[in-house]
Amino acid sequence: xxxxxxxxxxxxxxxxxxxxxxxxxxxxxxxxxxxxxxxxxxxxxxxxxxxxxxxxxxxxxxxxxxxxxxxxxxxxxxxxxxxxxxxxxxxxxxxxxxxxxxxxxxxxxxxxxxxxxxxxxxxxxxxxxxxxxxxxxxxxxxxxxxxxxxxxxxxxxxxxxxxxxxxxxxxxxxxxxxxxxxxxxxxxxxxxxxxxxxxxxxxxxxxxxxxxxxxxxxxxxxxxxxxxxxxxxxxxxxxxxxxxxxxxxxxxxxxxxxxxxxxxxxxxxxxxxxxxxxxxxxxxxxxxxxxxxxxxxxxxxxxxxxxxxxxxxxxxxxxxxxxxxxxxxxxxxxxxxxxxxxxxxxxxxxxxxxxxxxxxxxxxxxxxxxxxxxxxxxxxxxxxxxxxxxxxxxxxxxxxxxxxxxxxxxxxxxxxxxxxxxxxxxxxxxxxxxxxxxxxxxxxxxxxxxxxxxxxxxxxxxxxxxxxx
Length: 469
Ligand SMILES: C[S@@+](CC[C@H](N)C(=O)[O-])C[C@H]1O[C@@H](n2cnc3c(N)ncnc32)[C@H](O)[C@@H]1O
Hints:
The protein has 469 residues and is an alpha/beta fold. The protein contains 16 helices and ten strands. 39% of the residues lie in helices and 14% in strands. The chain is globular and about 65 Å long. Residues 55, 57-59, 82, 84-85, 87, 103-105, 108, 280-281, 307, 309-310, 316, 338-340 line the site of S-adenosylmethionine (SAM).
């Protein structure tokens, strides 16, 4: 691209003003005068559906609010082509925007869909009551199955998730599943797993809620074998269980789910329903516009807030194997499909394809916010080019596709630190800094991004009323 006002400039040309995120700014990119006040908010700031289930490398809802409030109005479409647990689309819907999320990971899609097209509270509690009642008739069958699984995991087959057939012997069950739960908890889980149909809105919501309580280190979780953040490596699970003679305490799935529903419905569902798409971010424009048209909504996004997959860090299937097992997804297949395992150059080419594809679904004055994590090492090995990724993303992906740079903001990231501690050299290690590229789809978008950067944001939550900015 030719030199112009948008061209990457030396730092001297963009001396930071008071309040700017000047710390550790990359030398060659201009800063944007945007206060990182999302950092001052409480950990669980935002809608009560956000903490439905933990998801690796997700960003806080408060961060999305900082951009949604500045760069969109109620009724606008806000898109995240890598929606993960659905943070951006949920927060957008909760603020009266039309949140559209897309992800290639079926687990992420399930979480996003559960949040932007949730069950109603009455439907969720009625279905839970139905399940409790049905359980009383099925308990003997499932308890016998659970005991067989525990005695001989390798030799026992179980019904397929969602098949509704308690007698089905469709698939094997991982040994580590048998280790994780008390026999009665496992029996209830097998029953619920067989009964819930993920294509039904209410069942999907309940299944997503169960993934959030499947494992964790307190009495509200169904297994204490591993932390809530992610599933421990299967080999570690086996060694740990053998070494400590681990026996999970009995936990009632229905009581646990009822308590989880109470927490989720602390706030009413968002006033607007959004869209959840399952697909490759490179191809999101067509399906997103089609789905928006079907809902009678504007078919272009005014704002994108997204965080593309990190460079060679997170295996979303493997690190969630117990949850994906419960949902009936294949963890290996998920990892084979996702685009996390790139070296820098293919990664940047991928990002460029994503940005090229996005154009067709962007309004002329759209603002595009890319949260990009710097990563230094992957499984102990230093990644060449892992640091400074945001700068390269600008130069090699966004600028060549005609985006206009409003500036770069910084954010501390703690997302992977806990995981790194627990997985040791298996996991990558993120540096402390995420960089946030704020782009305009056009010059009009860039101007809008700059003009609204210094607006004061209302951090009251739940909002007293939906505000137009
Ligand atoms: C850093 S995470 C996004 C997390 C999200 N911001 C949140 O708050 O949960 C990146 C996401 O990209 C997804 N992903 C990886 N490759 C993809 C592709 N080709 N198309 C769409 N999504 C992809 C992963 O499944 C993961 O959910």
